[in-house]
Amino acid sequence: MEYLPLNAIISEALSITPDTDASDWAIARQWAVTALMQLGTSEEEINVCDITAKNFVLMKPKDMRQYIEMALYDANGCYIPHIFRAGKKRIYPDITSYFYQGTEADRPIYLPVDVSEDTQAFYLGTNATSVAYAKVRYFSYPLDADGMPMIREDEKTAIMWYIRLAKSLKKNDNQSEIALNLQEWKIQCDRAKAMKKKISEDKAKTIGRRWLTMLPIFNNSSY
Fold it and tell me: What pTM was estimated for this model as a whole?
């Protein structure tokens, strides 16, 4: 899928929008980002990165749009299980586990680490002293050299119609124009979301093979 720069989409949208002035150019970037937030995500935007733990905190990547999952590791690359919790920080004592770590052959065994999050970072529990880094899978914003989100080719028309809708709402002097732009924005928004849900033939075959085996898969964290 080809990605287009945000400024190119804005320029094209405003070039075919009547009565454009300097104030529209100033706010159009925000209109485009607002539209992009409503178009959902696709598997093409999945990214994986390593985040170093510092003072029990894992700072989120700047291009993170939506968190998917993570895996914790110690300094030797040994996996450390975790339990994801809400609330940022534990306020009750954990009476169901013991602060013990043993070894099995040459691999250490760790008890699950508490993990929570806010908009800026992930937070590790106090039993996470052995955590060195985390591999995090997330939906990202493809960014250009200026740090602005890139636009998928199949999102272009929807974003252009949202900019036209926002412009007509700003003018607020033609209700039929607003209604037309709103209707077209909804149509193009649904179309863009549908395009993002398409899966490849190879993935469809993989899903079919799993269903046809009729065997339950209990370990979902194997990839």
Answer: 0.75
